[in-house]
Each structure stands twice: as structure tokens, then as C-alpha cells.
Amino acid sequence: MQGRYPIRAVAKITGLSLDTLRAWERRYQAVVPERTERGREYGPAQIERLLRLSRLIRKGHAIGRVAPLSDSELQDLLEQEPARPQEPSLAPDLLLPVLAAVNSYDSARAADELSRLAALLSPRDLVYQVALPLMRETGVRWHQGTFAIAQEHLVSHILRNVLGSMIRQLRPLGAVPRIVMATLAGEAHDFGVLAAAMLASLAGLEPVYLGPDLPGSDIAQAVKRTSARIVSIGVTLPSPSTQVELKRLAEDLPADVELWVGGAASDTLELSEVSNRVVRVKDLPAFESECLRWRK
Hints:
By secondary structure, the chain is an alpha/beta fold. The protein folds into three domains: 75 residues, Multidrug-efflux Transporter Regulator, Chain: A, Domain 2 (Orthogonal Bundle), CATH 1.10.1660; 74 residues, Methionine synthase domain (Methyltransferase, Methionine Synthase (B12-binding Domains), Chain A, domain 1, Orthogonal Bundle); 118 residues, Rossmann fold, CATH 3.40.50. The protein is built from 13 helices and eight strands.
């Protein structure tokens, strides 16, 4: 790699979006490109640094924590052996500013607080310490009558935006196994699936996130169109129709595609009667382990 490159060329080389490159430069001074009459220009060393940073973000590090490190420190981090996935311990009071903003229906402040946490925490910690606990606490407060349905919708909307944006930023480079992720018809709760999609990206798979409440035939069609190797289904509400719909989905899938089933109500299903290709995923750390198994 020789010479100097404009920002659009650097975006293609690194796989980082133009917005991400500008944000890393503006907020974290990750690199300082030369400014010319043609705009930003990056040298080979800066491109190598961006590639290291991108790889570290995919391994679960927060950009705000790794951007100040030297090139040698970044390389040392990359060479460290990844630990077996475990759910991080919850940091106390982390959600209080977000919940206070939701309590006063201040959607702008709630979004700002979540964006701040997204910058401070690794993507993995954002899932375990922010997204999932926030949805649980919102559900508890709704059942207790201290949160209205509108506040639950407010939290859902903001979390979808934050997690969806990060999934797009974390999209793996090159040819990697694809995993289709969705919930079946009648299942509207998809936050577990959305959080899992983010963890799949970090593990080096490419999630094809379809969203909630889909018939199995549509999911199977998406698998065939995308040549996905895995289907991950979230189940949070026990329903007699789920077992039947899962069996239909399994029958429609190509023979070499694995079907993963997880979620709070997945243990109510007789998965052995669905297919011998079904993998029961008991929780998100187990989901991460399955993703790593595929990457190996």
C-alpha cells in the first residue's frame, strides 16, 4: 500500500462507512488525515491503524477506549486470545439517566444518554449492561403501572435505532456465514433477537435480521435467497402454534441449514420433535458460543 488515499477509497479499503470515519476522527482523534484542496487524504500507516481499530471493535472493544492507544498497543490487543463468552456483571446505576429521561417522556435526552453509553461501552457490554436490562426494567415498570404503554414504545423505538445502527457498523468484512434471525408469526417481541444479531456480528457472522412476527415460509425463502447457513428464532411467548410453525419451517429449510431456537419460552418446546437439526440456545452467552463454533 503506497501513496495517499481520499476518504472514499479508505472507506472501501477498511469497510468503514464515511460517517464512521468522520465520527472517529472528530470525536476520538483515532487518526488525523492530511487536509488538502481535494479533502481528507490518508497515508498507509493511518489505513493500517483504522483496520486494527475496526477489528478490535468487532471483537467487542469500545472505540472510545481503544482510539487513544498506540499502534503497538492495538496490535497487542488483537493478538490476545479471546475468552469464553460470559455475561458481564451489571454496572449499578448505569441506566438511571436513561430511565429518568423516559420517565419525563424526554425522548431526545433518552436517545442522547443511550448514544453516550454506546460510545463508552463495548458493543457486547452495551447488549448485556444496557439493552437487555433496560427492556426488563421497562417491562417491570409497565406491569407495576409506573410506566405507560407510550413510554414502553419510546424505549423500544430508541433501542431499535441504537442497536440497528451498531449492527450496520459491525457488519463483518468478506465472505462469512450468514445467519437469518427473526421471530415466528404471533411473536412480536424481537429485542432478544436484535441483541443476538449484534453479538453475531461481533462473533464474525453476518446477521440477516428480518424482524418479528413472520410466517415460517417467508423465513425459509429468505434463507434460500441469502444462502444463509443458520436460522435463529426467538421465542418469548409460549403458544401451541409455535411448535407446529417451527416444524414447518424446519421442513422448508435446505438440508445443510441449522435451526437455532432460543428465548424465554424456548424450553416449553419439544425441539426433538421438530427436527434433528435444531439447536436449543439457552441464553445469549450460549448463542455466542454457537456463533464461535461456526466461525471455527
